[in-house]
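Hi U.,

Before I forget, here's the chain from the pilot set. I'm dumping it here mostly so it's searchable later in email.
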Amino acid sequence: MGSAHASSTNAASAKANSTNGSTTNGSTTNVGATSGGTTNVGTTSGSTTSGSSENGGAKNSSTENGGATHGSTKNHGTASSIEDSAGMVTGTGEPVAALTGPLLAACEQVVAGLLAEEPQTIVVVGAGARSWRHSSEEWGTLAGFGVAVEAPSAHPDTPPDLPLSLTIGRWLLERAGWSGSVVLQEVGATASVTDCLELGHSLDQQAGPEAVWLVVGDGSNRRGVRSPGFEDPRAAAFDAEVGKALTGVDPEALAAIDPVLADELGCVGRAPWQVVAGALDQAGSATATLRYEGAPFGVAYLVADWRFRA
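Structure:
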């Protein structure tokens, strides 16, 4: 990678659902690259992150982590478990919008940063049940979470096949006005560290220097007694280490995330984060700006930007 800005947070699912009066746990990440210029990488902590590389140029990346699993057997909760009939977060007395607003604004900021690079292609990476390159014609839906959202809104008359992570990624891009080329890469939530690193390197080489990446994933879903996965005292420290690795743009630290611990803590972002680690050059190759960090629904949310040095 050349130079980039990165961000991570659990905003994707929450963002889509909040527009329909409800929320679910999701996440998003962005990564962008341009030849001889700059690249944007956006990631959200919770479900995915993003990365890209460039020859002799600069890149920007952003990451977001979400609280919803992508195409896996885990369900981090639906709107009914978060929101009551009055539109308040269950057990808190706070409006859903008050908790999601800053997070969603951060997501939109990093996606806008990606598009500002005027990339030829956007690579969207997210966790799912398998490692699979989807056709750009495929689409996904949030109907299973009680939200009438299809992404993209215009699609073939075929069954939805994208996992939640890629659905969220496509939804965010469409909201931002992107109608250009996309590469849709699903990575198995249980993929080995080695496989993730190799996939990241290969994807980076295939995407080329004029592509940007959007990576979607989620952090632990066990932050507090009202969390979707029930409270685990290890979750906060785990998310802190993930945040340090993402904001430090540290591929070795990302590669060192324990798959077993991540699974126990309901974190589906581990595999996508390690994909982006495989696309990174080295630690310190970029500077990061943290846009958002929190766990308003018991799921880790992190948004940061990476700015790679030319």
